[in-house]
Amino acid sequence: MEQRMPSVRDNFTAVKTENAMTIEQLRNVHRAKPFVPFTIYLADGRSHGVPHPECMMFSHSGRTVVVASPDDTFDILDLLLVTDLKVHAPASAQSQGS
Fold this sequence. Notes:
SH3 type barrels; 2 helices; 98 residues; three-stranded antiparallel sheet; alpha+beta; 31% helix
């Protein structure tokens, strides 16, 4: 049987599936009850902390998010560039460890 080379379409589907999972993971972390602060890491090395659920908003398409900073600035992030999410310890666990 002849082996088929992967096409660009196959690669796009794999990337799309992988990022869809990342988008869903981000939605789940953002909607968690109780909310736990987290950090979003991007492919270019930048990171954005989300200390409160009201500090982040999804676009209608779900492909981008707006992350607000305490100094009233904001960043618009393309979720295709998200490489990692780090969920921080809840505040009560941090204070008990001190």
